[in-house]
Specification:
By secondary structure, this protein is mainly alpha-helical. Helices cover 80% and strands 0% of the residues. The protein has helices spanning 14-33, 39-67, 73-95, 102-133, 136-156, 161-173, 180-210. Helix 1 (14-33) runs antiparallel to helix 4. The relative contact order is 0.14. The model has no long low-confidence stretch (mean pLDDT 95).
């Protein structure tokens, strides 16, 4: 549970409700950055909202939108994969001891990056098609269903480190996200590629400076 009050509406257009949560993600990330806020409480609130929002989407929203042919299997599976990636970043953020360390700052930056990426894609590839293909009445009915599950998760607490790890492990077992060893190897390859790219860029800058 958290000292930051997370709104718990009970009705509304599911698309607008999801967008409201996306804006709340941004607000809470900003609170996690501020040096005059209760970062620990903000981190807890952000974690709770991320998990409740995402779990309720996977259980209630994505399947319904797919049934109504607003989205296809690819969009649903990709959304679930991105939720798993967010939860992976969230685990690292929750594992950071203290809130004034380099590890905390780095983990927050990574979480903000994957969360923002997902919000952008979801709004374009899931919410926009749903706005065109699903009636306002159906969206309102789905909003009530989604909120009921979201609020239930928030009320019971859903984002302790152990809970988020369990959700991530479930995603691994279901093949939503690659196994930890594969992800670690992939990260090593990405880091090496970034390092090589940086060398190329610096060499280009140095050459230009000599001309």
């Amino acid at each position: 549970m958290t000292d930051y009050a997370i709104p718990r509406p009970t009705s509304g257009d599911v698309l607008e409700l999801i967008l409201t949560d996306h804006r709340l993600f941004e607000d809470l990330i900003r609170e996690c950055r501020r040096n005059d806020s209760d970062r620990s409480a903000a981190r807890s609130a952000l974690a709770e909202l991320i998990v409740a929002h995402g779990e309720a989407e996977e259980e209630k929203v994505y399947p319904t939108l797919r049934t109504k042919r607003a989205i296809g299997a690819h969009e649903q599976e990709h959304g679930e994969e991105e939720h798993a990636e967010i939860n992976e970043a969230l685990v690292a953020f929750l594992e950071a001891k203290g809130t004034d360390t380099e590890k905390y700052d780095s983990a927050l930056e990574e979480l903000a990056t994957v969360l923002n990426h997902h919000a952008n894609e979801e709004e374009q590839t899931i919410l926009n098609p749903a706005r065109e293909e699903v009636s306002e009445q159906a969206r309102t009915e789905l909003g009530e269903v989604w909120l009921a599950r979201r609020n239930e998760l928030l009320d019971h607490g859903c984002a302790s480190l152990e809970q988020v790890k369990a959700i991530l492990h479930r995603a691994e077992k279901e093949g939503v996200i690659a196994a930890p060893e594969a992800r670690e190897k992939a990260d090593e390859i990405k880091d090496a590629a970034k390092e090589e790219a940086t060398k190329v860029e610096e060499a280009s800058k140095a050459a230009a400076a000599k001309d």
